[in-house]
Amino acid sequence: MSQAGKSFARRVPAARAGLWKTGRPLLARLDIELTERCNNDCVHCSINLPAGDDAARRREMSATGIKSILEEAASLGCLSVRFTGGEPLLRDDFEDIYLAARRLGLKVRIFTNATKITPRLAALLKSVPPLEKLEVSVYGMTAESGLAVTRNPRSFEAARRGIGLLVEHGVPFVVKGVVLPSTVNEMDRFEAWVRELPSRDGRPSYAMLFDLRSRRDDEAKNGRIRGLRIGPRDYVRLASRWGEGHALELRAFVARSAGLRGDRLFTCLADAGSIDAYGRFQVCLPLRHPDTVHDLKAGSLKDAVGKFLPKVRDMRAANPAYLERCGRCFLKDLCLQCPAKSWAEHGTLDTPLEYFCAVTHAQGVLIGVLAEGETAWTVADWPARIERLASPGDHERRAQAGGPAECGGDNPWKT
Amino acid sequence: MENLIDLDSAYGPSEDVVAREIEGEIIIVPLVSGIGDMEDELYTLNETGRAVWLRLDGLRPLRAVVSELAVEFDAPADRIEEDVVGLLGELVRRKMVVRKG
Fold first, then answer.
1. Can you give the pTM of this predicted structure?
2. Is A288 domain-assigned?
3. What was the ipTM of the complex prediction?
4. Which of helix, strand or coil describes residue A204?
């Protein structure tokens, strides 16, 4: 048994997923939408309801209900919970819920606009750290540009005050920007500001490829969101603004992920789940299709994760257009087309999405696996193109180059 | 630090950490700041550490833990003692374990 001279305890970065030597827990990560309400009214937002929407507030899960879910999640092996919204800090009982999660031994990710951070909350986050950096969405570098995004005249100042409190208390956080007509010319200024933040974490990520309303509740707003989406070529141009890092990342990702997915709809559901603001289990937060939502009143979280989720994971595409295009596209894993976005845009799980398809093709052209005007699902020699792409050293160059990452997950371009 | 470990004292997990057993792994999750070396890290124990950790109930003196492990692992008590003191020194330094009595 002797271990003389060896360390008995192994440090594991909290963000590292590969913690397990053998099997993985049934549920490793859980997203909880604490509220759909938000004190901002961002022009591009896919979910927010007004902060003062009392009907929505009354329907929200109670703190007791959320704690019960957290307890069951922890019993299933969950190690990380994300609190998001709307604006999760709108809830008066946020601290209570947060502490309950931490006392269960959960790491906590918090997505916030920072406007509701108080000295008391900043002090709490310092003394009882979430073990994950707060993720703060920043909407504009001036009161004017911020107002054009949030349509809340108090938001800019409140957010800066909240960020100042995080800095003052030494709470680790990262900031995320957004590319909109009112902010696109502020990117250099934004990045310079980020560089001065004490807990900066490389280059900031940006929201650019906006989702439509996941509740499918406001077609007029969907029209406005469509109008705010950046063009595919402009997306590639902006994503490449830090040099060749973006292209190197793309090449490395495509080299390891290229392939035909056929009628397989879900490639991203593993050991995670989501709970909406009203206590319904969803396989992921934006996906509100009735066939992919499980009411926890009708069963436990364990049932949802152990029985319902695998059924959803096995769902297959049937739409001929999807099978003809997406099912035969070797860049499917790069594309942001997914059941959640298909649901938001078309009310189905398996409809090709022209905008995201165009973005993917623009990226394919950038890295040389597609010619201008070529469609990826008609490329017969794609394995040879990928072979040429995966030249030795790509991964090393990618690691050194860094580059923009719009969101988490294996695909840095997924939102 | 190892010299501070008293075999006649009982040790137990600190209230400043949450210890969880997931898929056979002992995961020690800091609850408050100042645990361990970094702000955002979790800790796992190797097999030896796990065997000791599961016996740190805050009631039994460490010497009894050593005796129990020596029988279970069929190993010389002095070797076991060396390991246990080493582990306790590390865990006490990281503020994950405290002396209970």
1. 0.89
2. no
3. 0.90
4. coil
